[in-house]
Design brief:
Length: about 190
């Protein structure tokens, strides 16, 4: 079933929206949650919560890209669950490793000015990513948005894990320099 029909099912309050969403995007949402959480029970709960959130959001919201909408819901729910789990001294997944890799790009100071500049920063990162080759852009997004492991990226892009690590390290360095040149205090 195509996305427009699935979204219409939500708007019509037709309960078939959930199975249709699960059939088309269940594996996608599960992969995102698994990369962050690593715990099958938590993953299943986050994916189910994604469907509930989608049900509650539509209407009034009509997403233009259903996959991105569901991916963002799953990612946010999974990160919230991860924070709760690590506060309880349990957890797993790739989150600590990925966050450690990009920690030097994020300032510890969380000021009001920084929040105001957040949208400009997002636009600058988008411009930086737009200037990359499609493979490098995909590697970066898969690693730092979807929390894919280095080994998964190596398999997907047909490169060694070391090669992927080197590419990501160089991309982080280039992004850091790019943002510093544009006046961001990292």
């Amino acid at each position: 079933m195509d996305d427009i029909k699935i979204i219409q099912l939500y708007w019509d309050r037709n309960e078939q929206a959930i199975p249709a969403t699960s059939d088309k995007y269940g594996n996608y949402c599960t992969a995102i949650a698994t990369n962050i959480l690593g715990n099958c029970e938590d993953v299943e709960e986050c994916v189910n919560d994604t469907y509930l959130r989608a049900w509650n959001a539509m209407p009034p919201h009509r997403p233009s890209v259903l996959s991105a909408f569901l991916g963002k819901l799953t990612r946010n729910l999974s990160l919230n669950r991860y924070r709760r789990n690590t506060a309880e001294k349990r957890g797993g997944g790739n989150v600590p490793i990925v966050l450690d890799e990009i920690t030097d790009l994020v300032s510890d100071a969380d000021t009001v000015e920084r929040e105001i500049d957040r949208r400009e920063l997002v636009q600058e990162i988008d411009r930086f990513l737009a200037g990359l080759s499609p493979d490098k852009r995909n590697m970066f997004v898969c690693r730092y948005w979807y929390f894919d492991s280095i080994s998964d990226l190596a398999s997907r892009f047909g490169k060694t894990e070391n090669h992927i690590s080197v590419i990501l390290n160089r991309l982080r360095s280039k992004l850091r320099n790019y943002l510093l040149k544009r006046g961001y205090d990292l």
